[in-house]
């Protein structure tokens, strides 16, 4: 009986350890991993985007998305680099007088389009 208890305890502990490790590696629900957003932007069609100026959203009583993000922040630089990695998209944005250094964030919509937020 002692061997059975030892074997059962060892298998139970290993199951708990691996289960907890797998759960910790899962992304939090409701957030898009940075790498997935970067990949989406890199592969984005040059016609599937919107541009929103953060200042235009300040009229209502809520805080606009990316209001506290600076263009020099790590998050903003990742989005800017993803746009630059998509030459067709970056050319089209620049043709609309969008300075890529002013992009502070991006969100993916359900239809696959991306909204870029600018300062």
Description:
The protein is an alpha+beta fold and 119 residues long. It has one domain (30-118). The protein has helices at 2-24, 34-42, 74-84, 87-95; strands at residues 49-53, 103-108, 114-118. Strands 1-3-2 form a three-stranded mixed β-sheet. The protein starts with a helix and ends with a strand.
Question: What does the radius of gyration come to?
Answer: 22 Å
Task: Tell me about the largest β-sheet.
Answer: 3 strands, mixed
Give the N-terminus to C-terminus distance in angstroms. 70 Å
Provide the β-strand percentage band: 5-15%
Give the domain tally.
1
Mean pLDDT across all residues, rounded?
A: 79
General shape: globular
Output the number of helix runs. Answer: 4
> Strand order of the main beta sheet, please?
1-3-2
Low-confidence stretches: 20-31
- Strands, count: 3
Describe what is shown at a glance.
The chain is an alpha+beta fold and 119 residues long. Helices cover 44% and strands 13% of the residues. Helix 2 (34-42) runs parallel beside helix 3 (74-84).
Name the descriptors.
44% helix, alpha+beta, single chain, three-stranded mixed beta sheet
What is the secondary structure topology, with strand pairs?
Elements: H1 2-24, H2 34-42, E1 49-53, H3 74-84, H4 87-95, E2 103-108, E3 114-118
Parallel strand pairs: 1-3
Antiparallel strand pairs: 2-3
